[in-house]
Amino acid sequence: MPDLPDIPLPAGIRSRTIDGINGLRMHVLEAGFETKGRRCILLLHGFPELAFSWRKVMPALADAGYHVIAPDQRGYGRTTGWSAEYGSDLAPFSLFNLVRDALALVSAFGYRQVDVVGHDFGSPVAAWCALIRPDVFRFGDDDERAVRRTAAAAVWHRRHAGQACGRRPRSSRACRAAAAAKTLSMVLLDTRGERRHASRAAGRA
Question: Could you tell me which of 70, 117, 125, 204 has the fewest CB atoms within 10 Å of its CB?
């Protein structure tokens, strides 16, 4: 890959590459790396996005006490070691192998357990991570409570993403990003007001 310019990142986020990740040289963004012993959260981006897509929520998660890791997944961005040739084998892009990518990345950072969040295409990858290796990829300290909170947040986002942008939900990407950020905060930070709102939304579903 040719030399690329530095990524414009908010304060507190750094860019680096990690070698030997299931055959990849994986590009990741990190926040909350200054303090050792933090709980880790892995953020898996969607299509057609990059780790850069998480830059606005990473500082908030770091402030909440997380070591935040957001990779460019296989086939995306500055991650190398995969083939883009026409007609090349697609087996490396299977969900099972994408789980191996995530597992190798977590291991490279020395973690035995992490929280995992996926957006769009990253969602099935995150789901399969938790399904195949629940000992490594977790929902939270109380799995049942966390699953219910996640479901409630999904209900809220489905019903209110458009309202967050007024009458023209497709006119502003920033509005949609704000709605997605609120949903993520409901799942991970679980503030009191948001929890009450999510519970009401889940009860109406």
Answer: 204
